[in-house]
Amino acid sequence: MPLLEVKGASKRFGGVSALSAMDFKMNEGEIVGLIGPNGAGKTSFFNCLTGLLPLDKGTIFFKDARFALHRLPPHRIAEAGLARTFQNLRIFKNMTLLENVSIGFHARRFSERKIFEESDRLLDFMGLQAQSREIAANLPYGSQKRLEIARALACGPSLLLLDEPVAGMNANEKEEIIRLIRDIRSRGMAVLIIEHDMNVVMPLSDRVMVMDEGAKIAEGKPEEIRSDKRVIEAYLGEM
Amino acid sequence: MSLFLQQILNGLSIGLVYALIALGYTMVYGVIQLINFAHGEIFMVGGYLALTVILLFSLFFAQVPVWGALVAMIVFSVLGCALLGAVVERVAYRPLRGSPKLTALITSIGVSFFLQNAVMLIYGSKEQSVPPILPYHVFEMGAISFSLMQVIIFFTSIILMTLLTRFVKFSKTGKAMRAVSENREAASLMGVPVQKVIQATFVIGAALAAVGGALFALNYESINFHDGYLAGLKAFTAAVFGGIGSIPGAVIGGICLGVFESLGAGYISSEWKDVFAFILLVTVLIFKPSGILGEHLPEKV
Questions:
Q1: pLDDT digits (tens, 9 = 90+) for A133-158
Q2: Is B295 part of a structural domain of the chain?
Q3: Domain A4-81+157-238 in CATH: superfamily?
Q4: Cβ neighbour number for residue A22 with a 10 Å cutoff
């Protein structure tokens, strides 16, 4: 049974189709790369999944249809086990790292003590423990990106959506993120990644989906995608 | 010199009441960027609820000790106003979430008129005198003196402000409030129930205003249905002065405003007391519109 099942998801903004009749499935523990040119609708797809944008048409079912995400408000979706990061960082800049992560635990019925311990553990996992009492705004960009992932993990997701997790990072930081994503998957979470860097997406993903103009134009194993004509035309050809 | 110290002391006690009200303005502004002009009326309702309790006690429970009446009065007005704050948020502001800010602002003025007139219909348009329940006791310290009421105002406000600061800093809901005020969308995507957090903010703001209202009614021994207007406007001034959205700012703003007003009243004329308060508002808006501790500019209203 699929973890996530999207059927006929459509979203229009005036005359522009951000999503048109998208069908998509994901299984537990899978890493899927989502690629496509700018404006292809990748972030809109994330926004629809997480409840920021209500669908015009279609359904999104989660965990064997236990949750109908297209009918839930964003905080219930997070509670159901779907968490995300953002293309442009949206950490809580005036709060400490520890506070940022503890917000992710809000919907889980943990004691204050447990939230503190678990937040500390997550910061450690992300290599940020030494700065846990610092204000998030004072961190370098790469650490802020890692903090955002830590905060999303605090929601206890079964599916983690990462929107360009390595954008703006240097080679070492990219390696580190790739290692972390593999580690996250080994803990049983599924990961859906929007990423432009083919050297990151291709080796990391079990499967790649390509979008263009709001529609899925291809889906398959990374090596199949590399050789798909339509994909090369729409996207890879540009590079 | 003794006049100076005396006026500072008097200013401090009224300033703390302004600060209690200003906290509600600043917290609500912090989470939804709304200047809730009905907040002054919540304060006024708090005063009337306190009056009601005092009248009930003097009629039926005259043998109850003073402190019992005092506690009952504060608890009753806090609960009443907290409920009122929650209802106002649910009925008047929640349906407007996502609409232009001006819409909610105009609505808050409407709520303010509604509450004023509702209270006028219930209690009448005449000023109501609040029977003094506290023994009139004056403490002398050298050349300055202060009343028992001032002592109560001082300790109640300081305790509440300390509790609030700790609540916002450490509690789960307090942290969620800060998260919502920084980035509502991101907070909701992390599982924070934003509507509940906003409602909690209104409830806490209203509860603080209720305490302010009860203390105000006791201190001045009278209350009128339009008392909330002036007190609300001054507390708003205090919030802007301190930097709207900032909790320490509201406290500092309230105290500064009270002291400034009181010094003006002492040295120039008490008739001009309110003028001084608004001179402060105009000066701040001209020279430092973001206030002492504020980061962002308030809307022009």
A1: 999 999 999 999 999 999 999 999 99
A2: no
A3: P-loop containing nucleotide triphosphate hydrolases (3.40.50.300)
A4: 24
Asked whether the beta carbons of residue B175 and residue A103 sit closer than 8 angstroms, the reply is yes
CA distances from A227 to A5, A197, A230, A236, B215 (A): 26, 17, 9, 10, 77
Residue-wise burial string across A227-238, b where 16 or more C-beta atoms lie within 10 A, e elsewhere: ebeebeebbbee
Global pTM value? 0.91
Q: Are B221 and B25 in contact (CB under 8 A)?
A: no
Structure tokens at A186: 């080994």
What is the spatial distance between Cα B164 and Cα B205, in angstroms, rounded to a whole number?
10
Range of the domain at B204: 2-287
**Could you report how far apart the first and last alpha carbons of chain A are, in Å?**
37
Query: Using CB atoms, which residue from A52, A78, A94 is nearest to B190?
Result: A78
B209-258 residue pLDDT tens: 999 999 999 999 999 999 999 999 999 999 999 999 999 999 999 999 99
pLDDT digits (tens, 9 = 90+) for A81-138: 999 999 999 999 999 999 999 999 998 989 989 999 999 999 999 999 999 999 999 9
Buried b (16+ CB within 10 A) or exposed e, A176-195: bbbebbeebbeeebbbbbbb
Our count of domains for chain B comes to: 1
Nearest CB among B178, B186, B194 relative to A90 is that of: B186
Interface of A with B in 106-165 (CB under 8 A): 106-108, 112, 115, 151-152, 154-155
User: What is each CA distance from B230 to B78, B234, B251, in whole angstroms?
Assistant: 21, 6, 18
Mapped onto helix, strand or coil, the DSSP state of residue A215 is: strand
Structure tokens at B72: 């009952």
CATH of the domain at B70: 1.10.3470
Alpha helix (H) residue ranges in B89-193: 101-123, 148-170, 172-182, 184-189
Q: Is B217 part of any domain?
A: yes
**ipTM of the complex in this document:** 0.91
Instruction: Check CB contact of A83 with chain B, cutoff 8 Å.
Output: yes
| Range(s) within chain A of domains with CATH label 3.40.50.300 | 4-81+157-238
Residue B197 in domain: yes
